[in-house]
């Protein structure tokens, strides 16, 4: 039988994350969501207690947590605010391609920038005309001597306005389709890199997703990750590690919604009766049942990603539908 019991260390991590959520995320969640404000202070505090760069290996200054440990943190954080959780998670989303495909020198240089002191990073894959269809992106990176010149537009990039560096996916050889896709680390202060818009979103408003434009942006060839043509595999490998995080955030959000609903039903009196005792509130048991399989899917997904590097497409689907 598969055992999902947490170890004592994992329970301590869960408790730390729960307290962080209660003290630092929940109190500002509504305000940041309303204003669509990026949670810079929350991220800074998360960095200070070791809950920001959690998936970066210890040897490069991160917490070096396992896939399951990261999910424990995400679930607890999302029970306070899914948008703030997405903003915090952007760092690990950007760190994963570097962890999977970076050289030791690249890891030292770029992980060091966000582990030796507080700093953020972003993952720039999605474009106005390409999201799920990763190979449909249009951004190009053409080699000139010891540099690549990037041109294109990325959209829906979490925290891009606050990132020190971005992992950017671009075609080095569009004729080779997926095999012509490459990934680069691009310092955000590179001339020709501009954040041009912040989305006015329906939900997760605190995550501040941005549009970012690359116009003749020159990047050293040394910033290429894993060689020309490795980009598609790097993108897919990254999703295998990070999609369970999206799934478990939906579980945390559903748990939070459930807590609010139960508290409301316990207080609300209609026709001299508390709502909780009435038939209309019996949805509690209906909701709590699918929450568990969704959490299991999230945890199981992370184990597959960590152990077998298989595609992890289904867990986010189930858990996200539950949160809706
Ligand atoms: C809060 C938020 C933060 C984000 N942060 C980032 C980020 O930091 N970096 C980044 O690169 N991107 C980011 N994204 C973008 C996200 O990765 C894309 O939204 C996602 O890849 C889907 O792309 P799309 O929105 O273009 O939808 P589409 O690809 O247009 O899909 C639309 C619908 O069609 C379905 N669909 C698509 N293809 C198929 C198919 N073959 N078969 C059946 N159904 C299909 C999809 O499931 C979806 O329901 C973010 C998005 C959000 C909402």
Short recap of the structure:
With 324 residues, this protein is α+β, with helices and mostly antiparallel strands.
Major pleated sheet: 4 strands, mixed
The CATH architecture assignment of the largest domain turns out to be Beta Barrel
What is the count of β-strands?
Answer: 10
Number of domains: 3
User: Helical content, roughly?
Assistant: 40-55%
Order of helices and strands: HHHHHEEEEEEEEHEEHH
* Ligand names: flavin-adenine dinucleotide
Whole-number mean pLDDT: 88
The proportion of residues in beta strands is: 15-25%
Strand order of the largest sheet: 1-4-5-8
Instruction: Name the CATH homologous superfamily of the largest domain.
Output: Butyryl-CoA Dehydrogenase, subunit A, domain 2
Described by the principal axes of the CA atoms, the overall outline is globular
Given the structure, what is the number of helices?
A: 8
CATH topology of the largest domain: Butyryl-CoA Dehydrogenase, subunit A, domain 2
CATH domain class of the largest domain: Mainly Beta
**Through-space gap between termini:** 31 Å
Regions with little confidence, pLDDT below 50 for 5+ residues: 308-313
């Amino acid at each position: 039988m598969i055992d999902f019991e947490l170890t004592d260390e994992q329970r301590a991590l869960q408790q730390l994350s729960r307290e962080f959520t209660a003290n630092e995320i929940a109190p500002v969640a509504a305000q940041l969501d309303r204003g669509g404000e990026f949670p810079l202070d929350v991220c800074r505090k998360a960095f200070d207690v070791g809950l920001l760069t959690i998936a970066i290996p210890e040897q490069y200054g991160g917490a070096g947590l396992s896939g399951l440990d990261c999910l424990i943190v995400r679930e607890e954080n999302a029970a306070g605010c899914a948008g703030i959780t997405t903003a915090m998670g952007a760092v690990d989303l950007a760190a994963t391609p570097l962890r999977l495909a970076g050289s030791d020198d690249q890891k030292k240089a770029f992980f060091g920038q966000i582990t030796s002191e507080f700093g953020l990073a972003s993952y720039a894959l999605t474009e106005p005309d390409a999201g799920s269809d990763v190979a449909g992106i249009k951004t190009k990176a053409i080699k000139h001597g010891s540099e690549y010149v990037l041109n294109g537009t990325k959209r829906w990039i979490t925290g891009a306005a606050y990132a020190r560096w971005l992992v950017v996916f671009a075609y080095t050889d569009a004729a080779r389709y997926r095999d012509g896709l490459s990934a680069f680390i691009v310092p955000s202060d590179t001339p020709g890199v501009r954040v041009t818009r912040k989305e006015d979103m329906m939900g997760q408003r605190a995550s501040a997703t941005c549009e970012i434009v690359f116009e003749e942006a020159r990047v050293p060839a040394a910033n290429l990750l894993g060689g020309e043509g490795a980009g598609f595999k790097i993108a897919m490998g990254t999703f295998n590690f990070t999609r369970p995080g999206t799934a478990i955030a939906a579980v945390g959000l559903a748990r939070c919604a459930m807590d609010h609903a139960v508290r409301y039903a316990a207080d609300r009196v209609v026709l001299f009766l508390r709502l909780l005792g009435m038939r209309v509130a019996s949805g509690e048991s209906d909701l709590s049942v699918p929450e568990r399989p969704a959490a299991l899917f999230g945890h199981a997904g992370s184990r597959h990603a960590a152990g077998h590097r298989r595609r992890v497409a289904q867990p986010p689907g189930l858990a996200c539908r539950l949160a809706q």
